[in-house]
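note to self: dont lose this again. the chain is below, predicted strucutre after it. 656 aa total, dont forget to put it in the shared folder this time
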Amino acid sequence: MAARLRHVEQQQATAIPDDDTDADTAGPIDVEQAEAAIVEHYPRLVRLAYLILPPGMGRTRRVLAAHALAQRALPRNQGRPDAQEVDLPWQRGTKGSAGDAGYAYVRLRVLRSALRAARPRRPWTLSAPLPVVWGLRLFPRSGGADELALDKALSELSGPGRAAYVLRELERLDDREVRALLHAAGVEDARDALDEADEVPEPAGSRDDGSLLESAEFDPCSLQARPTDLMRRRQHLRALLVAVVALVVCGSLLGMPGEGWGRGGAAAPSYARNPSSERALDPDRLTRAEPFAWRTATRADFSSWPARGDRLGDTALLRRALAVWARPGRSVRVSSTAGTQSGPPSGPPQLLYAGVVDQAAVVLLYDGLRVARYAEGNGGEGGTVALDLARLDAADAAASTALVLGRADGNVRYLTAPWVRHASVRDLLHPAGRPRPVRLTTDGVTDPVRTVPRLRPCRGWPALQLGSRLVADLGELAPARLTYGTPGAAARDVAGRAARLGWARTACRLPLMTGRGVRSVNVWQFGTQRLPEAGGRAAWLCTRAETWRGAGSRVLAQFQPWNTRRGSAGAIASAADGSPACGPREPRVLAGVLWKARSGHWFLLAAGSRQVTAIAASGGVHGRSHGRALTVPAKPGAHATLKARLTNGTHLGPLR
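---
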């Protein structure tokens, strides 16, 4: 197999400096004289560089680097060696041109470059190109045990130490001459280098007629050739061909002119074209429900909402909204609720709204699984762009009453369902207060509704009442429906004194439900209990937040004494994530708290749902009751384990 030696600029290897600047000289060295010295003594110069270079490079790279150093010793113009170089010694025993200034000059350049290459490199140092032989590994012939031992000893030396040893053994220079040459090559402490070279043990098989460094083991000009990894090379070649073909195809597709792409605004560049993707991004193919389809629809949900807004005919705005949904650029602020996929729609989505809301152009799109809200500054393409995604699949009439159009200055505007005729705002913390009416436009857009104060969330909690249904803003695209009652079919809208009182003590716990993609929140009073020492009565409530995706629910068990300040939040007895407790599958719960009476005495209070027939406490507090409530004296900070027995004979542990 023939091999061709050439330089490749892209090859990364050990840094090989190319220094053509020298100090003023006593006499110039022209390029022809340096070239003659390199050609005549090329094997010795390459061997010199090979021995000084660090062995950790690997034999193949070390061979190629040594050849590169010898070849780069040729100056670009006439060299001017230092005054010290005029008297530098040459190789012992050489005759003729080996003893001229040309050889001393190129040898010094090789020595300098090899010492620089032997220095520890920083990670960010750029590598110089090396000669490369494609498809072959080149390395000197293997020697005997003596050569191997010497190579190992040299690998433990520093670059100057190896150079001192090589100059002494290969060039046959004495210590004074080695110090002078190392000093000219830039070594600060040549004496340390000589001391280091003295530590190399004398090889057992050294010859009287020559140095062991002259053996074939250290000859980078007498090489053996072996192939590289054939299987890996074939795999890399195939991968390279595939990458080139893919690059050509993608470049051709991106460069092809075509109609229907349009300007995508803040969208990222297109990466592919196929009929399905183009149909999904074509504003003319957007589906739109008939204005009164919700009246005859089998299921009243978002799919029966008609398209509304004053920008329904703005094709450019709709195209930008679809393009950003498919491939949002870096400048787009993207948010999505938990469990919501952020990919493009699989087909043409349904248009729900396109219009201007609080100085922003807003587009609402629905693909049967998700709702996407696109908003841009009213100035057009150059403004701020936001994309919000929420998973709203399997919605019914009760869960698809409103969507958030925009938030500004602590207010939120909603787009209500087409069957909503009246809207009002009710403060959950004031159950006896009357709701405040909210005006609806002909498109079903509400006036600004005040959101929950961030700094003082328990000073007021506004909820939007749409007919008989009550919804609360939890910071997502769809407000969460609020219900009250036994889990399952018995849960109903918040109406009546008991439901409003229960929510008045629970509303301040709603921040614990945010960021989960909550679909509905139900409050269930599962028990009441008489407090010891004439402390009055207390209610036990369970609050359960269901999500649109099914998983990720959150359950809170609350203890609410009736004689506390009105509107104060109940104490959280226990909490659980992903538990079926207090839900339709497991409508039962057990919880307990430590309570301090006015006298200063502490008690363990526990209560269970209707299925509980007995409660037992163990651990730090011991006690038992036959019924749904337990009251046992306790010490402050006591830890107790609760267990309840159900009507079917099974046991129930506390909510956790």
